[in-house]
Write a structure and sequence with these properties.
Length: 345
């Protein structure tokens, strides 16, 4: 039964469904649940630094149940998205109701879409196609290239747009990271094409395919749901990727890798990501909060990620930390003193 604990992650799309169905003031149930109730409960729930024993780790790494718990998110997020678009375009709703539905939908696209797409994007199988399909509604397919070939090599350096600088407010980070990662994805793609002696105008140029697929996706919504549905899809996608960027912000805030005598950065270690062992956040985000081990061994599946004693620890879980990050003065008071002295500017 313990293996089924990750079903709790589905409470977010369930609450979003209720938000859309009930309408009225209830359209805001999802943000209240995710950024209100969960952070509140997280203050009173336990955290665990316990790691799996080797035989149990091997057993869990091979259990298909953990994979299927991820795959189910694909039909879930698209169902919520199209239910939201259908509801907005076929009902007389107030602007506040529409905003509530967009926010609720965007939270699902971020938490159950991009987050799961991130996990599956590290797999060396056809699961990568599911990952890209999960990234599509948030208009962030380029994340697959930039994250795997950029961020994991440059994390905790000034060259990484997805690493927040010391004393950088999250709102400024949103701008620099969104723009920087898109530019970085194109640079990586061009470099990969050049390395393989392939023309820029090639079928293997994934960034072109992402543009085409995203255009077809948005174009189809426009055809079937008119401009109103198009706006809902765009706005929900933006909420989804800003949710991701807020997580990016807290994952590496203020941490830096040093350069060695040869001028190269030291390898990524457990000390270069913020970790959280708060159980509620771990379960709801499929262990994303054990981010230190994820960067240390990117190919490890979420269910077997470890705690490392030398990893910097967040004072709260990821849901609570995200709320605090939206209040920069409070975030700086809590976090600046926790950034290792030798990493501060």
């Amino acid at each position: 039964m313990k293996d089924l604990k990750y079903i709790s992650a589905y409470t977010i799309p369930v609450v979003a469904f209720l938000s859309i169905w009930l309408q009225g003031i209830y359209t805001y149930l999802t943000p209240v649940y995710v950024f209100g109730l969960i952070p509140f409960l997280e203050l009173f729930t336990s955290k665990s630094s316990e790691n799996l024993e080797e035989n149990l780790r091997l057993s869990k790494s091979k259990k298909r149940l953990f994979d299927w718990l991820l795959y189910i998110n694909l039909p879930l997020i698209y169902s919520i998205l199209f239910y939201a678009i259908y509801t907005v375009t076929n009902n007389e709703l107030s602007m506040s109701e529409i905003v509530g539905i967009i926010i609720s939908t965007g939270i699902v696209l971020g938490a159950n879409g991009i987050n799961v797409g991130h996990e599956l994007g590290h797999r060396f199988t056809n699961e990568r196609f599911i990952a890209k399909a999960l990234l599509l509604p948030s208009l962030y397919m380029h994340f697959y290239i930039e994250h795997n070939f950029g961020h994991h090599q440059k994390a905790a350096t000034t060259e990484d747009p997805a690493t927040a600088k010391y004393n950088q407010p999250v709102y400024l980070f949103w701008i620099t990271s969104v723009i920087g990662q898109y530019i970085s994805a194109w640079k990586i793609q061009i470099k990969l094409l050049s390395k393989n002696n392939v023309s820029f105008f090639s079928f293997t140029n994934d960034m072109f395919w992402y543009l085409i697929i995203t255009t077809l996706y948005l174009g189809s919504i426009y055809i079937f749901f008119d401009l109103y549905g198009f706006y809902v899809a765009i706005s929900s996608g933006a909420i989804g990727f800003l949710l991701l960027e807020t997580i990016n912000y807290i994952e590496h805030y203020g941490l830096k890798r040093n350069k060695n005598s040869s001028g190269r950065y030291e390898r990524v270690r457990e000390i270069h990501s913020w970790n959280s062992n708060h159980l509620l956040g771990r379960i709801l985000l499929f262990e994303l909060t054990r981010h230190s081990d994820h960067h240390y061994r990117a190919s490890k599946k979420y269910q077997i990620l470890d705690h490392h004693d030398n990893s910097p620890q967040l004072p709260f879980g990821y849901p609570t930390s995200m709320v605090i990050a939206l209040l920069p003065p409070l975030w700086f008071i809590l976090m600046n003193k926790r950034v290792p002295t030798d990493m501060k500017p």
